[in-house]
Amino acid sequence: MRVAMIGTGYVGLTTGVCLAELGHDVVCADIDGNRIAQLRRGILPFAESGVAEMASRHMTRGRLHFTCDLANAVAERDIVMIAVGTPKGAEGEADLSFVRNAARQIAPAIAPKTVVTLKSTVVVGTAREVREIIASERGALDFWVTSNPEFLREGSAVADFLRPDRIVIGADDHDAAQRLIQLYQPLLREGIPLVETGTTNAELIKYAANAFLALKIGFINDVADLCEQIEGDISAVAQGIGLDRRIGSSFLAPGPGYGGSCFPKDTEAFAATGRRHKAPQPLVETLIVRNEKRKRGIAERVLRELSDIGNPTVGILGVAFKANTDDVRESAALAIVPILQQAGVSVRAFDPWAQTKAAALLPSVAWHDDPYAALENVDLGLILTEWEAFRSLDLARLALSMRNRILFDCRNLLEPQEMPRHGFRYLSLGRGGVPRAIKQVSAGAARSQGPHRSLRLPS
Ligand SMILES: NC(=O)c1ccc[n+]([C@@H]2O[C@H](COP(=O)([O-])OP(=O)(O)OC[C@H]3O[C@@H](n4cnc5c(N)ncnc54)[C@H](O)[C@@H]3O)[C@@H](O)[C@H]2O)c1
Asked: I need a surface site. Which of 217, 363, 376, 380 has the fewest CB within 10 A?
């Protein structure tokens, strides 16, 4: 089939490339000329395993094209997918301005019988609104607007797209639904479940799914807090919960609060939708508040650890919102670092992929090329992202180079039993029952280096 993809972000580009992999002819369009120029040269705007190789293969085969000319891109296409951003707007509502603009831009050029489909995460009613926008431009033109929400995760986007748990097709017209079913035929043939429904349900499925996953994270974070008070171990508790098939084991790892480009804005949009339609969502409303509080709480724990150290320095390991991505949108680091800096803490940091993007948002951080350099002479090491490489840090090497041996592992990557051997005071999440490290071992003289600058604890 002939497909146009509007927007070449994480979702648009990955989806476009994967649709080419399924055998379709795909043109990807973006209003960002620089991005399109780079893509034509094979340079991706983000790091995502497998996308660059597949893109290059399909460009060579002539199945994948990039353009800034939206009108040209959508003319004579069977399906036009809109995958532009839907960021957080006022009062938590989704900002649909990019979707509306895209609809206005493609309206004059789409051919009769085109199926326009919304890949972007959009609130209930958006497919109908986009239909009205295009109809107001094109009058009697015969076309359809459908919903096909995307569930891929950054870091495993290609695998998620090609082997999804389900494909959701929301269409209020049988023929339009059939067109999308045909698009996904190579996956449906493999037995991937299909949910075929109306646009309203499809739109709600996406928000409800993200809200539910975020609730799982919020729940396990609260249980981890409880474990710390009762000498429980969250990994045992999570395993015991997760093996129940009604619950499932994913999203049951405690952390510094969820972030990323989806959960924070989608939970807010879901709650706002509930308020707008007089069906409040108090579980999600509470979750949103608690998740922000959790990030602040981590920063406050760090400051308490540093309270009697002069001119403290913290080394952050991981600024991406999760591992295997360079995306820092709403990451824990973006919330925690400014709180530390405002309190007078110097911050050094390392992330394998996300440093360039984070540096633009965290200007006063000293960036380093490896974890050991980032933790050199620091008073406290703070692990915020679950990069696999951090599991095998050389603790003996760190113990020699850190000024004070305090490690706060917000992803439970390290073995608590190992820590006392290297003289670390080790903090992690929800591991109240495992042996605690000996009380902090200080490098002595370092504690009294320079005039003591007291920390400003947030109120
Ligand atoms: N990132 C994820 O993991 C993920 C997963 C599932 C769903 N989603 C949803 O998919 C949508 C896109 O997310 P993303 O992370 O890919 O966004 P993104 O910000 O990475 O990319 C959006 C792209 O759209 C382009 N764009 C904006 N207006 C345009 C227009 N009028 N015409 C052409 N291009 C235009 C931008 O230049 C940008 O390149 C959002 O609604 C998001 O919630 C994201």
From this structure: 363
